[in-house]
# Entry
Amino acid sequence: MSRHFNSARLVRLLGDSAMLSVEPPRQDFAERLSHWLTAVDTVTLHGALQSIKTVAPEAPIDAGQGVAKALEAEFQRVRAALVDAIVPSAATRAVEQRFKSALTPEAGQEAEATYGPYHKRYQDQQRQMELKIAPLRAQVRQVLSRTSPRLRQLATLDAVMDQTLGVREQRLLSSVPVFLERRFEHLRKAQTQDDPLLWRQPGGWLHTFNQEVQDALLAELEVRLQPARGLIEAFSNEVKKHP
# Structure
């Protein structure tokens, strides 16, 4: 887990758009983490950490570069599928533009003036991330659990962290669409005072907002992928030590 969460791209994006007040943390990592854990969580996590300390530092690995490459390939496949779902293709953008051009001004203003469709799309994308990334992370843990004692303990620790912090993480990420709604309203009020239909113009406020939504989704994707990414890197490093 990053000690510098405020440096995460998602947090920077929200801060840069004035959707989120970002201040340097006044507590160190351990203190902040303690607010996320219950007494039971703390005991479970402590046990996992203690067990890791007992693992021999030079444990052999019953796996090779082929397994590491397969994990990396699966990671990239899942990531690419989610990126493709977030970033619209040129064909999709062309269809949307033709749809907007066909709208009457009154209908167009009504169709694009509410945040509801964007909120739904963002939540749909979040569900897709959960459905694809959770099995990937579990698959990587399963591979690590069949290799060296050191990696088995790392897989156990990740499972504990997923269980203890997962609910809090999902709750925090579910608040991102709320911040985006504030941004939507800010842009609409700030840039449509003189021309209510400014959203129809290329490069208008709605174009800006769409790009910010896409950037937020891509940044959130990287946040969600970090645990699996870290496990795969740990596995690859261990394989290199014991070819």
